[in-house]
Specification:
By secondary structure, this protein is an all-alpha fold. It is built from ten helices and no strands.
């Protein structure tokens, strides 16, 4: 089992990564599994632990949040809240073996998105010579689907959001990052309520609290640090973590 100090450090890293560009799940989930939690419980616990950090990051970014096209921000939040709840419900009702078997593939999918999502976005935009021009309804439907994925697993869901907004609306990723963090907080909020009620998160208070405290500090500090470090450096850290964890999970499986 990982000591609490290691979980605290993992929480700091996860919170900072989520604030900077995404990828906190790649650190939080394996750390909690290494601490002795079952995969489903570890995933639920990671969501609970990362929520305060996401809220802290969203609060830090609050003055720089811009709308996603013509889509009302409140409607986007509602889509995230509802989708996050459904995704969390799926995690709780589906057999645990299903999630355990899916984790390596979910990590692999998220890693591919991290590695090639921006290039694909740029290639599609260049091919069309313009963004797709998604309407508000299409954006809300896509956000709802992404939120379901976020409530169930969450890895790279923020990257998927930025890719959608970039390809569909031409929104710059740096400009959209504050909204990304806000929507992640909304997804985590509903999922956390369900996980605290129906999952085994409360049965492992020390690991969850250790990671939560770390993620809170990392989320607040990461939002400030993002403004000083280069995007390339941060992305390299996230991608390296994602690739490493994906390979380890496939080897372990």
């Amino acid at each position: 089992m990982l000591p609490l100090l290691a979980l605290l450090c993992a929480g700091i890293a996860a919170g900072a990564l989520n604030a900077a560009g995404g990828g906190g799940t790649f650190v939080a989930l394996p750390a909690l599994v290494a601490a002795g939690l079952a995969p489903v419980t570890a995933n639920a616990s990671a969501t609970v632990a990362l929520l305060p950090g996401a809220v802290a990051s969203a609060w830090t970014y609050r003055r720089t949040i811009v709308p996603v096209g013509d889509t009302p921000t409140r409607s986007l939040v509602v889509a995230s809240v509802l989708g996050g709840g459904i995704g969390a419900g799926l995690l709780l009702v589906l057999p645990p073996v299903s999630f355990a078997a899916a984790v390596p593939w979910l990590l692999a999918f998220a890693t591919v998105v991290l590695a090639f999502g921006r290039r694909l976005s740029a290639a599609l935009g260049a091919a069309m010579h313009r963004p797709l021009g998604l309407g508000s309804r299409a954006v809300l439907i896509a956000q709802f689907v992404l939120a379901i994925y976020g409530g169930y697993f969450g890895g790279a869901v923020g990257i998927l959001m930025l890719a959608l907004w970039s390809v569909g609306l031409g929104l710059d990723t740096a400009v959209g990052n504050p909204m990304r963090v806000t929507q992640i907080a909304a997804i985590y909020a509903t999922a956390t309520v369900l996980f605290l009620i129906a999952a085994d998160v409360a049965h492992h208070p020390l690991p969850v609290v250790a990671m939560l405290v770390g993620a809170l500090a990392g989320g607040f500090g990461g939002a400030h640090l993002t403004r000083r470090l280069s995007a390339r450096t941060l992305r390299a850290v996230v991608l390296s973590t994602a690739v490493t964890m994906t390979v380890l999970y496939f080897v372990r499986g």
